[in-house]
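[step 3/7] fold_predict: job queued, chain A
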Amino acid sequence: MALSIAGALTMNLLTSDTSGISGNGIYETRTGEQNSITLRDGSVIQLNTGSRIHVNFVDKQRTVSLIAGEVHFQVAKDKTRPFIVKAGEGLVRAVGTAFSVRLHPEAVKVVVDEGKVALATSLDPPNSKNGSSRDTAETVRRAGDRGYLVQGQPMSTSIPGQCLCGRITFSAQPITSEMDACHCTQCRKWSGGVLFAVVCSSVQINNESELTAYQSSDWGERLFCRHCGSNLFWRSLEHSIVAVMVQAFDDPSQFEFTREAFIDEKPGNYSFADKTHRMTGEEFMGLYDSSRS
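[step 4/7] structure written:
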């Protein structure tokens, strides 16, 4: 995930050196601001709006505590010093990789761009002698994967939905409880407005023969009911990524609006008052580049 860099208030308890390298201390951004800092090991941290972290590097361990908000990490490789992010009751452990961590009141959300990380609720790594399976959430291995740590357990709820006429019903397992809004021209043309969708790890479709698919790009297709015309799914051609239209769920109110994609294609005659993470088309597509390759 790439975050745009804007002017931000950075409060550092220890001053940075003249090269612009940041040391141990507290860093934060105010609402509407974003900032990027480079740490002494070469790791780069990008703070989203309204975020606050505490950096504490010692000889054998690199630790960053996420106090509030969302932060993206590009971790410099150092096998002798693991990189650990503390967020609420969750821990994210990495050696050299790129990932984002967002702190929610009820959970820690992790999005992996490249490499792999381990999610846990204690400093003991997953499957260690000191840790139990109940203390461990999961290991996120590949780009595009997302982990969701809620009291030590990954998100696993299947949610029902259907089209307008009811001929097509489905049960989907969302990766997170968050939804995206897409402003790209194709999605606006297809939906007749802003498209709201949730990426799901699995979707079970009943009466799939009633679906019509339209290949809208060289890597994705859009699926809708051939009877009532309800827009239901976007799916990559190799079926590795499936996004379900939020309003197709029986209870769409359970999803939180957190991100806007293709903000550079959004017309100027509308905008949302919600505080969201806004991504250009290039930034958003970068999340899934490895899935398309």
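[step 5/7] annotate
The two ends are 17 Å apart (CA to CA).
Residues 1-19, 122-156 have pLDDT under 50 and may be disordered.
exit 0
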